[in-house]
Amino acid sequence: MTVRRTWIVVTAVVSAGAAFMMALVIGVYVIGGNLANEVGGATRQLAKGAVPAIYQPLVAKWGNLCPALNPALLAAQLYQESGFNPRAQSGAAAQGIAQFIPGTWATHGVDGDGDGDRDVWDPNDAIPSAASYDCQLASYVKTVPGNSTHNMLAAYNAGPDAVIRYGGVPPYSETQNYVKTITTLEESFAAPVTRVDPSKQAAGAIYFAQKKLGTPYLWGGNGTADQGGRFDCSGLTKAAYESVGITLPRVANDQYNAGPHPKRSELLPGDLVFFSTDLGNSRAIHHVGIYVGGGYMIDAPYTGAVIRFDPIDTSEYFGATRVTEDGAKALPKTV
Q: What's the pLDDT score for residue 45?
């Protein structure tokens, strides 16, 4: 969704077998749920590697510009707008990593790096401008009752006048969806401050993947009949979660943003585990599998191999995502 536009007015031991694996899944969910605890008052910091390393300092700095904003929320907006692509351009003439339309940029663009110009294509200007614009909107609606961050995001989408007129997020489906989308995506870019809740659908996803063990790998494979039921890595994980009603993006680096990111020590069966040659950039992720416990995953590894169990602890282990239905729904259709 492009939003820098005219405000709307209306609108496990591997050989143990299936039974052991499913028992492991059920047992870990019980334990995981019981271990959840509250950690209050923590500032939302960025999850490791969630923002490309080249932009991480800018997002971390400018995401704390005002109380209604935080780095993870700013990252969610940038990802939703452009997928962190500084050369992105939409059919509505929105430009750059933050997708400003020219008129909005003329009014709200700032010289973030102090080099004497305001360049919408330069993330050193565009990211500070996005934060500045957010915070200016927050100041316009600061007296409106309710959640200040939600009101800021609603003002971003519908305009501050609508937020003031309705005394909060206005009853426009586009605006309400935008607020929900960005606050849900925020969870994917934030370092967790509590133990991440277990996924309700994970056991079913593992069951699907387990039935595919031994199937030959096919690059670009989605498991269709014309492909002989074969998969590549992200095709397998996408199909596994579709079997339990969750639609993931097609490629691994976008699947990474489908939920919060548990620590290695907090992995549960069903978590997606990711691998990259650049451990500071989620956009460089090149492989994904489904964690089954005991340091192993089910994955479709490469041409010439079959879907199998593999260890996750390699030099390219990037991190994990606990897929949620809301997290998957919040992902942009294209990035």
A: 85
Beta-strand pair 285-293/308-311 = unpaired
End-to-end Cα distance, the chain: 10
Q: Which of 298, 291, 279 is nearest to 53 (CA)?
A: 279
Residue ranges with strand state E in the chain: 272-276, 285-293, 296-299, 308-311, 317-321
| Integer Cα distance of 33 and 195 in angstroms | 9
Q: What is the distance between the alpha carbons of residues 298 and 14, in angstroms, rounded to a whole number?
A: 10
Under-70 pLDDT residues of the chain: 1-43, 333-335
Angle between helices 71-82 and 123-140 (to 10 degrees): 120
Q: Name the helix (H) or strand (E) containing 328.
A: helix 325-330
Cβ neighbourhood burial of 301 (10 Å; 0-12, 13-18, 19+):
middle
CA distances from 111 to 55, 74, 114, 121, 178 (A): 16, 18, 5, 12, 27
Cβ pair 36, 195 in contact under 8 A: yes
- State the DSSP string of 240-264: HHHTTT-PPPSSHHHHTTSS----G
- Quick one: pLDDT at residue 30? 37
Q: What is the pLDDT of residue 332?
A: 84
pLDDT digits (tens, 9 = 90+) for 102-155: 999 999 999 999 999 999 999 999 999 999 999 999 999 999 999 999 999 999
